[in-house]
Amino acid sequence: MINKLVMATNNANKLREAREILAPLGIEVLSQREAGADCEPDENGVTFAENAVIKAKAVYDTVHMPTIADDSGLCVDALDGRPGVYSARYAPKGQECAKLLDEMKDIPDDERSAAFCCTIAYIDENGTHTMNGECRGKIGFEQRGTNGFGYDPVFLYGEKTLAEMSADEKNDISHRGAALRCLYQFLKERNGD
Hints:
By secondary structure, the chain is an alpha/beta fold. 32% of the residues lie in helices and 25% in strands. Strands 2-1-3-4-5-6-7 form a seven-stranded mixed β-sheet.
């Protein structure tokens, strides 16, 4: 029976999202800091899955408790999938949206499709499992909204950017939310519910 797991992050937004989605299972989600894991592994994978497993394994090897980690990013079709696994390193922190809008300034509206992609890795004494989630939309022409983080102000889902949505609206459609719902089903089955 899994009643506690560690998320290989100290990111408050990611923790909140995981805690909200897994709460109905009665599973407590600890940050890596709360679990006593002070590690920042080198994310040198070439896919989201590889990076998620690298992070989960580093924390699991430290705390020896069920551990999850995610890796996610924005894949823009007109940029051949960039920034992809390099989304967090694409531009200096806080300048990602500005750089992306500048790089896409000459791309017409009908060619601005993109997807947020996420892989969650789960590790325990029985092995490693990965779950994927995706949110398709397109890149707008300006930053809008004050909620969310990262590329949320430029990513349009319908008529709204992710940064214009409430946390509940975003959880319902987000890539991480989709991957976490796959994890929810996996853990529910693992716990025999």
